[in-house]
Design goal:
alpha+beta; Arc Repressor Mutant, subunit A; Alpha-Beta Plaits; 2 domains; 4-stranded antiparallel β-sheet; 5 helices; 4 strands; 34% helix; 15% strand; globular
Length: 157
């Protein structure tokens, strides 16, 4: 998966329509990809192939459900690390090996690795962050959620 910014021409109008449409929900039906593809004018196989390509190109980092851990008794925490550039790939591999890491982003900043921990208990946040610190030798800064905001992401289709 690439980590560079995609050029504007990397996504065609159909890719952009997919990104916009699938943020609104995904059908829970016997053939969800066929049902999701229909309003986009895509077959089941075409939609699956395009989602796979979006992932491989780095336009999306994952495709799957997002569960509200807090509503189920768990916890979320935004975390950041200052990772030396020559260790970034090794550290991202260690961090992402934890199933509690919901997603991970590189940023052009001193705190260049940002990720979200989602655990089945509030105590799991501290346990996982400490494990990452032990494995990497780097401090994990924790930014617990104080208020929830939903920010939709849309691309010009």
């Amino acid at each position: 998966m690439r980590r560079e910014v995609l050029p504007p021409e990397a996504l065609d109008a159909t890719d952009r329509a997919i990104l916009n449409a699938l943020q609104e929900g995904f059908p829970l039906t016997p053939h969800p990809f066929a049902d999701a593809g229909k309003p986009l004018g895509l077959s089941e196989d075409d939609l699956i192939a395009r989602i796979q390509n979006l992932r491989e190109e780095g336009a999306i980092t994952r495709f799957g459900p997002f569960f509200d851990a807090e509503a189920m008794g768990g916890a979320f925490c935004l975390c950041a690390m200052a990772v030396p550039g020559d260790r970034f790939d090794a550290v991202v591999t260690l961090v992402n090996a934890h199933p509690e890491v919901a997603h991970n982003y590189e940023r052009a900043h001193r705190l260049n690795m940002w990720f979200v921990l989602a655990t089945d208990t509030p105590a799991g946040i501290e346990k996982t962050a400490r494990a990452i610190e032990k494995e990497t030798g780097l401090k994990v800064l924790r930014f617990p959620k104080l208020k929830e905001f939903f920010i939709g992401f849309r691309v010009k289709a």
